[in-house]
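Researcher: I'd like a structural prediction for the single chain below. Treat it as a standalone chain; there are no partners to consider.
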Amino acid sequence: MKKRFLLMSVLALMGTVMVISCGKDKPVTSDSNAVATTKDGAVFTVDTLNSKVEWTGYKIFKSDNTSHFGSIKFESGEVTVKDNKLESGNFVASMNTLTAEDLKDNKEDQGKLNGHLKSGDFFEVDKFPTASYEITKVTANETGDYNTLIDGNLTLKGVTKPVSFNTNVVVKDGVVTIKSEKKDINRRDFGVNFTSPASNGVVKDEVSLQINVKALEKR
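Model: Treating it as a single chain, here is the predicted structure.
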């Protein structure tokens, strides 16, 4: 009887492990919005020295007390402006510039975290050195704190998903600035599936992104 019970327990455990493993191996597929923008307007080039993506990752509970934050720099990009309004845009970010700014005063810990985030556990930067965002639609917001809703396709770790941002867009004196509110994305949607041991603090699936772009008119 004990042997039978033990055998049933082992089989049940194996079944559980198989279910968990299958869940982890679920393939990630791309999905994107059709591009509905035109590119008839004046071209502005992204000022890569003064543009970046800010990110925040969370552990256990989604709060500033259990988070890391940092930035990723753009390596290229451009937007078009027609009738003094944002018309279209595409941006490429260098994942090799990903850095945890909250640890800037502790270079050893910062280096360890940066290295881990760039490894195969997270963004696999050696294989996927860039991330990109293409604007597919621009809509004026009539109310609220942000004047423009931007829809677009975000490609991260080789996976493309539609992501929208509420933004403030300003076009003035040959300069375009785009500043978004924080936007949560689910890292698992992009194949970033790392799960830390509970003793180290569970890494939340949500990552907050905030875009800050400055673009200069081509002369």
